[in-house]
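Practice record 12: protein with adenosine monophosphate.
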Amino acid sequence: MAAEDDIVEWFEAAAETAGAVQSQTLRRIIESNLGSEYLGRWLGGDLRVQDLSPAELESLFTSAVPLATHADLEPYIQRIAHGDASPVLTQQPITMLSLSSGTTGGRPKYVPFTRFSSQSTLEIFRLAAAYRSRVFPIRSGGRILEFIYSSKQFQTKGGLMAGTATTHYFASEEFKTKQRTTKCFTCSPFEVISAGDYQQSTYCHLLLGLLFHEEVEFVASTFAYSIVQALTAFEELWEELCEDMRQGTLSSKISMPTMRKAVVENLVPNPSLASKIERECEGLRRSGWCGLIPRVWPNAKYIYSIMTGSMQPYLRKLRHYAGEVPLVCAEYGSTESWIGVNLEPLNPPERVAFAVIPTFSYFEFIPLHKQRKQDSSSRLVTTDDDFEEGQPVPLCKVSVGQQYEIVLTTFTGLYRYRLGDVVEVAGFYKGTPQLTFVCRRKLVLTVNIDKNTERDLQLAVEKGSCLLSRTKAELVDFTSHAEVAHHPGHYVIYWEIKGEVEEGVLQDCCREMDAAFVDQGYVVSRKTSSIGPLELRIVDTGTFRKIMEHFIGNGTAMSQFKTPRCTTNQVLLTILDCCTVKRFWSTAYSP
Ligand code: AMP
């Protein structure tokens, strides 16, 4: 039987008995880490796990160990980072720490990374590839044009290796195994992926992608942003790339010796290919680069990347480049743990759901309800955001249509850890839930009693930017800020636009966004003027690139970068304010 069938069979069996598999997963996590300080503190070091039934162990664990946020675990993780080699969170010492992107939460966080982390990454990639190849068969020996990037690995004070999770994975044995054993190979060698300079790497990814253009079976990245960024760069770079192909040379802007050497090895003068690509690009430029991917990579079967959540705003641009080539959503996970796999690659990004993999972590789900007046018998806990919380439930007890916050207990030493993601249960695949990603739980915009999440903001921006379709302009990226320094506070939304737009249209966009926030706190505050008119600020071309470069300069990997949708970061606000070229206010409020 082919390895692809084996992994599908393994997953289907696990999904069938997901509840029991979760109990075993929890038992394995507890057995391997009971000697750790953290688990010992809550469960007692002399617990005899083997004397308890699965149900008893689950019930003991969830009653004795408290729910925790990253802030609760931070003192433990800091000790590890400072070199404490005692069993703090796990029995086996942690030797690597990952940095979560920090662009969603605002600040990078350390999270333990172990061999299990890269093994599960390889496993989920193989599983997803097996499901994809059922509907999109690809040629063995073909190539993948992958826009992937490592950032720098560095040592913490205590000498532990630190870096982003993708960086650790790309440096791991598991990644090498994947490169050796999968049907298709990445166009770029490791030296390009790991160079640590995203502009130089992007140039080389593109050049190698062009050289192997007929062999490219699909185009991929971790998050969709990287594909859009690379193809936008292509619009500027194609002539130079074609010249390099014609001459068999490599642009002098590629200054890193190891990357140069690895790329140059693949180069031979190819004037006919250069002319062919040039002809395509001249036509594409005239049509605004619509359908770039199929024209330049004619055998690409699909585009594969994370396209949900904060990547949704880039879908329009991605579709523009993709033409008829289908978009396939990549998996759902986080630096802390992988969570779910896309079993239905034909589903468009707007409808994708992820089947939870019950062997990766022990998952719990906190039911979330939009806040409403409570009766005295309610067991719901009121929180400072827009939700009331119920009691966490195990994976097999979730209800279809209900929204939850995910809680993880991992093999890497996180116990009942609140991930901060809100998901909705779309259905079940055998015994395991299928989740749609809703948003990060954290509020992004709040001035007083108003409560808006990243999703609310995204919807408002979508509504406002719809009006741009009347023009030839498009929204490149956006972010926001709740301005409370002056009374009354108000929302500021920053847009970078490509193309010309009349001021009247932007004024309408601003009004439309203001009216699109339907949260009652906002509506009431706007009507009573305790929140001022929404302000739309148009920023100069390249502003969001500067923001991305600020994060990359501070250690974020391009592969994991997500534009912060709301910011209080002074450096970012200074960049945004310096780059503001026009301002509009929504003075006539009509929700
Ligand atoms: P990081 O902090 O870089 O590890 O990013 C992890 C976060 O990215 C998750 O907690 C989610 O909020 C988001 N994310 C990851 N995968 C997906 C996905 N498939 N769809 C939507 N959001 C995702």
